[in-house]
Amino acid sequence: MTDNQNLRSEDRNPETSDPVARAADLLKEHRHSIDRLDAILVYTLGERFKHTQAVGKLKALHDLPPSDPNREAAQIARLEDLSKQANLDPEFARKFLNFIIAEVIRHHKQYKS
Amino acid sequence: MTDNQNLRSEDRNPETSDPVARAADLLKEHRHSIDRLDAILVYTLGERFKHTQAVGKLKALHDLPPSDPNREAAQIARLEDLSKQANLDPEFARKFLNFIIAEVIRHHKQYKS
What is the DSSP string of A23-58? Predict the structure, then answer.
């Protein structure tokens, strides 16, 4: 009974009693998670570009072409597979990889020029 | 002396002695890292869309507009700051966020319709 009263007293908290205020609280929580996930994305992209820049330097040194259609096709197939596992739209994953590859090729061309 | 001989014998390894083969090995190692980082990106994006879909449902329920310019401006400012810390081109980070937000808005419009 004491536990139930405690629960009810929490429910009466002004921050959660009103449905609109409750929605605003939920929205805020989701946005905090999104902000943390964006930090993961930015730092992971930073690490990824560190590797593609090393690849770009190796390619420039050995006079290899900046883009590699076979490697890109394998990456797209792998990402579509990963996307299904992660419950992500495979079409979006493909667009996403193309978006990143375009940036990588832009970097590689800078090294060559 | 024995240590030096061991090192030299490793240098004579056919996988690493030829500069072109050594470059191919390095390229392979970088590509393995890129593949692992892509898995992080895909799963993190999956988690991020889970939260933006929850936000979309909350917005639809409370009849809020799908896009929120103030929130987006704050996110872009935050990402530009994070990008500098992660040694990433802030211009790319902004394009990247716009790319993801466009996909999120597409999801939100689907809920509303």
Answer: HHHHHHHHHHHHHHHHHHHHHHHHHHHHHHHHHHHH
pLDDT tens digits for A23-41?
889 999 999 999 999 999 9
Assembly ipTM: 0.79
Share of chain A above pLDDT 70, in %: 82
Are A34 and B41 a contacting pair at CB < 8 A?
A: no
Nearest CA in chain A to B100: A96
Contacts of B55 in chain A (CB under 8 A): 27, 30-31, 34
Closest to B108 in 3D by CA, of B67, B68, B48, B72: B67
pLDDT along chain B (113 residues), means of 10: 43 61 90 97 94 91 84 90 90 88 79 62
Is A83 within 8 Å of B41 when comparing Cβ atoms?
Answer: no
Residue B12: is it exposed, middle or buried by C-beta count within 10 angstroms (0-12/13-18/19+)? exposed
pTM (two decimals): 0.79
Does residue A101 belong to the interface with chain B, where contact is any CB pair within 8 Å?
no
What is the number of alpha carbons within 13 Å of residue B111 lying toward its C-beta? 20
Q: Hey, what domains does chain A have and what are their CATH numbers?
A: 7-112 (1.20.59.10)
B34 contacts on A by Cβ (under 8 Å): 48, 51-52, 55
Touching B: A residues 8-37, CB under 8 Å: 20, 23, 26-27, 30-31, 33-35, 37
